[in-house]
Amino acid sequence: MDATDPHVLGPGLLPLGEHVNRFRETDAEGATLDRWDADDPKAVVSSRVTWAELQGHAAFDAATTSVSTVSLTTPLGDLTCRKYDTDDGVFWFSITHPGMPVQYESDGMRTTVLSIDRD
Asked: Which of 57, 63, 82, 116 is the most buried (most CB within 10 A)?
């Protein structure tokens, strides 16, 4: 393990990355989505997204998706989630944190929400 980089978990592995998503300028139609790498907060990429576009990311085919309610331990705490097993991956949506999934797995990669901040 590379002791000089805490993001490297072991020999031959690439470092982990932390990314930030922030929604601002919200209205009835959508929001401005700011995204950046946590190591480079000045490199913000912004785009306007609609709520319908975001909802489309979580529209799963009923014929190929199973849904269950599960407990999930995350950096946000122990959460009750709706788990969607799909052809494209597994998605966990927190019942108490509406919005994007708090965790998802796809193509051998797992993404987990570390925190939720409200202004």
From this structure: 82
